[in-house]
């Protein structure tokens, strides 16, 4: 067992495979017993330099249930940041008030920089298009929980594989577990070659498709993402392909009984409402799992697990 | 150096000679080494005929010996240059510029959303591939390649 006390979590590569599994094991304990006042002498700062209500509430719920007190802001508009205070000064000040900083900031690399300035550990809750490691961890937790293992799975990724940060992180993480990747996307939104290269370098295989039905019989996990109109240079092209990445209940015939559908949320129309009632829908529980994973991380980093 | 022929760029008694510079990066190297502000003799020749290249550049800096860190910066734009240390008109050392593993406070991140382009933070890069010159920003994790490399002001 590694000692995670005092560690930062900025990028998925900051933790080893074994350390991820350690956090997932601790999260299981919190799922069974989420209300434990083990952080009642701690102050957790949540600094949201851009609004992200779901992520912030998940972290704050996690901290609250462990008895920690929370300080911070959900929008920098009303703070000294608005008056032009540097990130350096904000972090220096907040790290003297708190035991742990959770930070979201649209500037890429800002969390890494904050961790170098801060005297207390920093958890990255999203730095622009770069990293959002706790999302990746809750995805791993959800996969392990629904499949009983992380090893040797068929992982299908659907939608915007080009810009989808969660897709890239999850792909990299699953490269540690002998996964086979099934990639469904419009031509314009294919997985970047650098991410494909990391699959190849891990000695694993990927297959590319343009329609969801092609992966229905093989997938253990279908990871859905949103295809946004803004990503297309040609609006007609968007109109032509937009339906190819929508999943509805009638398409689920012939899937494996263990198959589960994940989505980082918020969903727009890429999963129709009739899927919610099927046993394959798992995206709401997935979001709930985020609280247990964040509890586990905070407890481990603050040295009480 | 072509000592037998007439020397286009005069010899120096003490200092550093940077030879076999590709003509298109000569002035970039002048800038990298900060020679615009060097207050002693600097002799610059460009588009000179050489054996190795059809045309080459050469810089001679009087009374100056660069440290390895400065020399390695040259490798980022011209990996094939020769660096010669001269004492009393004699060659005392020949060095090759070598691309380092890490580059601090020298290369600019090309990602406009990177924190280093918004706060006064020294940049840091890890060298991922020395052959093709691929660097990764320590902060935003984006790549910079040979074609997109720019230097801090
Ligand atoms: Zn950067």
How does this structure look, described?
- The complex is a heterodimer of chains A (305) and B (153).
- Chain A has 305 residues and is an alpha/beta fold.
- Chain A has helices at 17-32, 53-65, 87-97, 110-117, 133-147, 165-174, 193-201, 235-241, 283-301; strands spanning 43-48, 69-73, 100-105, 122-127, 154-158, 180-184, 206-209, 221-224, 260-262.
- Chain A contains nine helices and nine strands.
- Chain A is globular, with a radius of gyration of 20 Å.
- Chain B has 153 residues and is mainly beta.
- Chain B folds into two domains: 15-96, Aspartate carbamoyltransferase regulatory subunit, N-terminal domain (Alpha-Beta Plaits, 2-Layer Sandwich), CATH 3.30.70.140; 102-145, Aspartate carbamoyltransferase regulatory subunit, C-terminal domain (SH3 type barrels, Roll).
- In chain B, a hairpin with a 5-residue loop joins strand 9 (134-137) and strand 10 (143-145).
- The model of chain B has no long low-confidence stretch (mean pLDDT 90).
- At the A-B interface, helix 4 of A face loops of B.
- The complex binds zinc ion.
- Zinc ion is lined by residues 109, 111, 114, 116, 137, 139-140, 142 of chain B.
- Residues 109, 111, 114, 116, 137, 139-140, 142 of chain B line the site of zinc ion.
List the helices and strands and how they pair.
The complex is a heterodimer of chains A (305) and B (153).
Chain A: H1 17-32, E1 43-48, H2 53-65, E2 69-73, H3 87-97, E3 100-105, H4 110-117, E4 122-127, H5 133-147, E5 154-158, H6 165-174, E6 180-184, H7 193-201, E7 206-209, E8 221-224, H8 235-241, E9 260-262, H9 283-301
Helix pairs in contact in A: 1-9, 2-9, 3-4, 5-6, 5-9
Chain B: E1 15-21, H1 26-32, E2 42-49, E3 55-62, H2 68-75, E4 82-87, E5 90-96, E6 102-104, E7 107-108, E8 124-129, E9 134-137, E10 143-145, E11 150-151
Antiparallel strand pairs in B: 1-3, 1-4, 2-3, 4-5, 6-8, 7-11, 8-9, 9-10
Zinc ion binds next to loops of chain B.
């Amino acid at each position: 067992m590694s000692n995670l006390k005092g560690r930062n979590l900025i990028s998925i590569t900051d933790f080893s495979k074994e350390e991820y599994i350690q956090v997932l094991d601790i999260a299981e304990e919190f799922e069974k017993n989420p209300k434990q006042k083990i952080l009642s002498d701690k102050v957790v700062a949540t600094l949201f330099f851009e609004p992200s209500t779901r992520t912030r509430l998940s972290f704050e719920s996690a901290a609250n249930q462990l008895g920690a007190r929370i300080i911070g802001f959900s929008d920098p508009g009303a703070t000294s940041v608005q008056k032009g205070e540097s990130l350096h000064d904000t972090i220096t000040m907040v790290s003297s008030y708190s035991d742990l900083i959770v930070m979201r900031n649209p500037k890429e690399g800002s969390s890494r920089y904050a961790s170098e300035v801060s005297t207390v550990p920093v958890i990255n809750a999203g730095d622009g298009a770069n990293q959002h490691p706790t999302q990746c961890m809750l995805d791993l937790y959800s996969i392990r929980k629904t499949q009983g293992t992380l090893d040797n799975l068929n992982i299908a990724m659907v939608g915007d594989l080009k810009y989808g940060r969660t897709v890239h992180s999850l792909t990299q993480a699953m490269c540690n577990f002998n996964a086979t990747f099934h990639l469904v996307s419009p031509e314009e939104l294919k997985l970047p070659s650098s991410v494909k290269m990391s699959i190849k370098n891990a000695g694993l295989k990927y297959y590319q498709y343009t329609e969801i039905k092609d992966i229905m019989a093989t997938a253990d996990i279908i990871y859905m993402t949103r295809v946004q109109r803004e990503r297309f240079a040609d609006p007609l092209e968007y109109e032509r392909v937009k339906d190819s990445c929508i999943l509805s209940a009638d398409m689920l015939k012939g899937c494996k009984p263990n198959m589960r559908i994940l989505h980082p949320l918020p969903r727009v129309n890429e999963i129709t409402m009739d899927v919610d009632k099927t046993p394959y829908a798992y995206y709401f529980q997935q979001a709930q799992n985020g609280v247990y994973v964040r509890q586990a991380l905070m407890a481990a980093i603050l040295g009480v697990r | 150096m072509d000592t037998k022929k007439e020397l286009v760029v005069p010899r120096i008694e003490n200092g550093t000679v940077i030879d076999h510079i590709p003509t298109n990066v000569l002035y970039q190297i002048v800038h990298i080494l900060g020679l615009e502000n060097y207050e002693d003799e600097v002799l610059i020749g460009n588009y000179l005929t050489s054996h190795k290249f059809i045309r080459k550049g050469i810089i001679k800096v009087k009374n100056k010996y660069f440290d390895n860190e400065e020399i390695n910066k040259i490798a980022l734009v011209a990996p094939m240059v020769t660096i010669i240390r001269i004492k009393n008109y004699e060659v005392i050392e020949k060095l090759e510029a070598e691309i380092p593993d890490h580059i601090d406070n020298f290369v600019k991140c090309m990602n406009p959303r990177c924190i280093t382009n918004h706060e006064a933070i020294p940049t840091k890069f890890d060298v991922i591939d020395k052959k093709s010159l691929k660097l990764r920003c320590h902060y935003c994790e984006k790549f910079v390649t040979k074609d997109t490399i720019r230097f801090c002001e």
